[in-house]
Specification:
Structural class: alpha/beta
Number of strands: 14
CATH superfamily of the largest domain: P-loop containing nucleotide triphosphate hydrolases
Helix content: 40-55%
CATH class of the largest domain: Alpha Beta
Largest sheet: 5 strands, parallel
Strand content: 5-15%
Shape: extended
CATH topology of the largest domain: Rossmann fold
Oligomer: single chain
Number of domains: 3
């Protein structure tokens, strides 16, 4: 694909001559007689390099560089002038121009200079495309839904994202707190720096401290060398502490110090470590009540709760259930090498009637299972788990709990062709538990 070059110059004969020279080099040339027309073309066309006269009928070409860069930062600009001055040249480069040339004196330089400008512009364009894709994958575009409840949360998050303010995300388990935290980071000025996510409930008190703050060699048995903590790993970026309400009171004191002055002391260390980290925290607990019950530090609660965003449970955003379900269907069907199915209206009707105590996480798991279970490219209500059906179970025969459980395990084992490890993963139970249940029933694969 030939790169587009725009020449902005009101001297028609000179512009046409330069265009002809560049066309012989294989470039596609566009021409504009003034700044207004040139800017309009830059907006509409895929321009990579602009060659712009300094003296234009409606603008100064040196000052125009800044406007071009505002429109498309990856576009490189070469200023041409009949009478060059050092001050104009300095200002052009300061405004972002690739180079500044005097007409006539530099004819031999223009082709290699344009080649270098094209290479740089193409590289910058690829980088901008990757950044755009990153924003699509990690920004607020991944937060699906159109309900007023979720839109309110998104708008609040967008406003705080551009700041360095600490954010507290509240909501039930499975409402998407980590997705929001990641979106806030990638919409912030820290997006080029690390985003580190930690689930505080996954560690014991001692292990959590060493994971967050690191330790000095010899601090405890097994600490054979110095280790960076996750706060250091996130330096310059953001750290997301999920289930913060599970953190012990002494660790809360250490966290409060980080928030107040950006310092902490590693386990077994004596000197202070300084960091610059933005904190995004989340919990499904009522921290104010926890503080009143002396299970959470009141001063830390006040420090965290300056900007709070409450994420609504799925049952309060019924209009978003179908949007989310269709998204997960498109995600999981290709993963199991199945065609994206059509969906019967009865399927969505039962989804909308469900309580969704597990919120989006539960919906995601339900969709994954029905995609795995479907034998035809159509999702019907019969494929949904038993708890979705108010009027009895379909084609089960006996309705006692053991029969229902046996029937479901048999279907999963049949789908996995006897692969018990995969069946246990789908069922959400341990492999040992599955073997025990097989021994209790027994389970037949045919």
């Amino acid at each position: 694909m030939r790169s587009n070059i725009l020449i902005i110059d009101d001297e028609v004969r000179l512009s046409q001559l330069l265009a002809r020279i560049l066309e012989l080099e294989g470039y596609h040339i566009l021409q504009a007689p003034n700044a207004k027309t040139g800017l309009r073309m830059i907006e509409k066309e895929d321009i990579r390099v602009v060659i712009c006269d300094v003296k234009l009928p409606d603008a100064n070409g040196v000052e125009l560089v800044g406007k071009i860069k505002q429109l498309k930062p990856y576009v490189e600009v070469i200023n041409l002038t009949a009478h060059g001055t050092i001050s104009d040249g300095v200002l052009a480069i300061k405004n972002g121009a690739f180079d500044y040339l005097v007409k006539g004196d530099d004819n031999e330089k223009i082709i290699p200079l344009v080649n270098k400008a094209i290479d740089k512009a193409n590289l910058q364009f690829r980088i901008s495309e990757l950044e755009r894709q990153m924003e699509v994958q990690h920004g607020f575009s991944i937060v699906l839904g159109k309900s007023p409840e979720i839109n309110e949360a998104i708008e609040l998050a967008k406003k705080v994202a551009k700041t360095d303010a600490t954010v507290l995300l509240l909501g039930e388990t499975g409402t998407g707190k980590e997705v929001f935290a990641e979106a806030i980071h990638f919409e912030s000025l820290r997006k080029e720096k690390p985003f580190v996510a930690v689930n505080c409930s996954a560690f014991s008190r001692e292990l959590l401290e060493s994971e967050l703050f690191g330790y000095k060699a010899g601090a405890f048995t097994g600490a054979v060398k110095d280790k960076k903590g996750l706060f250091e790993e996130a330096n310059g970026g953001s750290i997301f502490l999920d289930e913060l309400g599970e953190m012990s009171l002494d660790l809360q004191a250490k966290l409060l110090r980080v928030l107040e002055n950006g310092t902490f002391i590693k386990v077994g260390e004596t000197k202070v470590t300084k960091i610059d980290v933005r904190l995004i925290a989340a919990t499904n607990r009522d921290l104010q009540q926890e503080a009143e019950d002396h299970h959470f530090r009141l001063d830390l609660y006040y420090r965290l709760s300056g900007f709070t965003i409450v994420l609504p449970p799925l049952r309060e955003r019924i209009g978003d259930i179908e949007i989310l379900a269709r998204h997960f269907i498109k995600v999981y069907a290709p993963k199991v090498k199945k065609k994206v199915p059509d969906v019967d209206e009865s399927f969505f009707k039962l989804l909308n009637q469900h309580k969704w105590n597990g919120n989006i996480r539960e919906l995601k798991n339900v969709i994954e299972r029905v995609i795995i279970m479907m034998d035809e490219p159509l999702l019907t209500s019969k494929l949904l788990p038993y708890e979705f059906h108010s009027g009895g179970y379909h084609d089960l025969g006996a309705l006692d709990l053991e029969s229902v459980e046996r029937h479901h395990i048999r279907r999963i084992l049949k789908h996995t062709k006897g692969n018990k490890a995969e069946a246990a993963r789908i069922l959400g139970i341990g492999l040992a538990t599955l073997y025990r249940k097989i021994g209790e029933f027994p389970i037949l694969l045919n």
